[in-house]
């Protein structure tokens, strides 16, 4: 019961503050919701498919090594209604991505904000 | 004991909200006729006996919105009145409320098995629905998983001994120029009523009243009656806005939906 109540209060706060569950259908408990990080990288590909749009991008670390991350967005329907299409991001595009990393340290990110090559933030939900 | 627990929950809720950096953003102009169009400040009157269009859940300011996404009433102040059987069944639920779960942690049948959502659970998916009207039936088309409900408007009565279906059997009638009432029975018992995990029996009857307030706004009153699961009817109201420039897209609960567990375990994609 305590978990249920926690979730309910969390929902109140999320909605009251104007935020919303990022992944719409799936939960976000696998991601570190207490911390966000911002990464800058280069798009390797984007899968504009049901149920989640996925942006794959390379990030160069301080040691010079390159790691490919996958960043998870909501459903393509929702992004399409917000103005996206399958060509919004293309291989080679520079992106700045803010989100919550997978808790086990994998290079997997639940995306909260994303800016394209022109530096402008792209909407992540329809309105 | 109860108050400290509630205080700690409130603190956690505020912390969660503070950590949620996704703020409401304005959408750009639409592409392909699919962009958003906010309702007019003074929308025209509701057309008579007409619900056609695409409707998207939007809670007006001051309305009891937070609950409407995942359950029907404030679970702390106004929880459903359950029978003893309903209470026992509810204890078995591992909810999918609030977004704070993994597929391993919930037994929500929609998320873990891709079961059809049932009625009225279908309204808890954050996708729009479309209404089409013909002389003898009204079609309710839900973007989520392409669900279609055929509401007979040819004057027939509800069946006395309905087959049990995922989305039930529905009849509808116009009460007046703005209110369309839909009654549904024959819902199979493998679905939940909400995302907290309240169950229903084969005795569930759902009455929906679609009330078109004006051209751009729709209210949906829902009443659930189930003498086996609910000690008294459970009621709520949902709020919708018209999205005339939208088209329904494709969302199928299959394959990758269930394979999402691979991502939750740290995989970079669904593939196993």
What is the assigned CATH homologous superfamily of chain A? Answer: Nucleic acid-binding proteins
Shape of chain B: globular
- Cα gyration radius of chain B (Å): 20 Å
Written as H for each helix and E for each strand, in order along the chain, the element string of chain A is HEEEHEEE
Percent of residues of chain A in beta strands? Answer: 25-35%
Q: What can you tell me about this protein's structure?
A:
The complex is a heterodimer of chains A (127) and B (272). Chain A has helices at 2-16, 76-81, and strands at 37-47, 54-60, 66-72, 94-101, 108-115, 121-122. Chain A is an alpha+beta fold and 127 residues long. In chain A, β2 (54-60) and β3 form a beta hairpin. Chain A is globular, with a radius of gyration of 15 Å. The N and C termini of chain A lie far apart (33 Å). Chain B is an alpha+beta fold and 272 residues long. Chain B has helices at 2-19, 84-90, 109-113, 256-264, and strands spanning 53-57, 129-133, 137-142, 148-152, 169-174, 179-185, 205-212, 217-225, 234-242. In chain B, strands 1-2-3-4-5-6-7-8-9 form a nine-stranded mixed barrel. In chain B, a hairpin with a 3-residue loop joins β2 (129-133) and β3 (137-142). The longest helix of chain B is centred in the first third of the chain and has 18 residues, at 2-19. Chain B is globular and about 50 Å long. Chains A and B meet through α1, β3, α2 and β5 of A and α1 and α4 of B.
List keywords for this structure.
heterodimer, A: about 130 residues, alpha+beta, OB fold (Dihydrolipoamide Acetyltransferase, E2P), 5-stranded mixed beta barrel, about 15% helix, B: about 270 residues, Lipocalin, 9-stranded mixed barrel, 4 helices, 9 strands
Concise account of the structure shown:
The complex is a heterodimer of chains A (127) and B (272). Chain A has helices spanning 2-16, 76-81; strands at 37-47, 54-60, 66-72, 94-101, 108-115, 121-122.
């Amino acid at each position: 019961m305590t978990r249920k109540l926690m979730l309910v209060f969390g929902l109140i706060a999320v909605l009251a503050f104007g935020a919303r569950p990022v992944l719409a259908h799936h939960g976000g408990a696998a991601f570190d919701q207490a911390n966000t990080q911002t990464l800058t990288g280069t798009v390797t590909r984007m899968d504009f498919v049901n149920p989640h749009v996925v942006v794959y991008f390379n990030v160069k670390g301080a040691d010079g090594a390159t790691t490919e991350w996958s960043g998870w967005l909501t459903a393509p329907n929702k992004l399409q209604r917000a103005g996206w299409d399958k060509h919004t991001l293309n291989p080679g595009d520079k992106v700045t991505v803010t989100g919550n990393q997978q808790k086990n340290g994998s290079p997997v990110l639940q995306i909260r904000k994303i800016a394209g090559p022109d530096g402008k933030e792209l909407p992540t939900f329809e309105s | 004991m109860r108050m400290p627990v509630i205080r700690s929950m409130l603190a956690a809720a505020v912390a969660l909200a503070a950590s949620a950096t996704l703020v409401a953003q304005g959408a750009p102009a639409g592409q392909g006729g699919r962009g958003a169009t906010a309702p007019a400040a003074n929308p025209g009157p509701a057309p008579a006996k007409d619900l056609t269009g695409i409707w998207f859940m939007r809670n007006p300011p001051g309305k009891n919105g937070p609950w409407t996404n995942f359950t029907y009433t404030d679970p702390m102040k106004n929880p459903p009145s359950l029978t003893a059987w309903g209470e026992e069944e509810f204890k078995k639920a591992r909810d999918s409320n609030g977004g704070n779960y993994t597929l391993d942690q919930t037994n929500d049948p929609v998320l873990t098995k891709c079961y059809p959502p049932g009625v009225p659970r279908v309204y808890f998916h954050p996708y729009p629905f479309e209404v089409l009207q013909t002389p003898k039936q009204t079609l309710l088309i839900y973007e989520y998983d392409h669900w279609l409900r055929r509401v007979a408007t040819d004057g027939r009565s509800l069946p006395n001994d309905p087959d049990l279906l995922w989305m039930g059997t529905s009849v509808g009638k116009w009460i007046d120029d703005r209110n369309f009432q839909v009654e549904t029975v024959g819902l199979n018992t493998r679905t939940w009523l909400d995302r907290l995990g309240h169950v229903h029996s084969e005795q569930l009857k759902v009455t929906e009243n679609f009330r078109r307030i004006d051209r751009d706004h729709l209210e949906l009153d829902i009443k659930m009656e189930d003498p086996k699961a609910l000690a008294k009817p459970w009621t709520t109201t949902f709020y919708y806005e018209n999205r005339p420039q939208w088209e329904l897209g494709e969302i199928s609960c299959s394959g990758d939906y269930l394979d999402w567990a691979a991502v939750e375990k740290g995989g970079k994609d669904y593939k196993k």
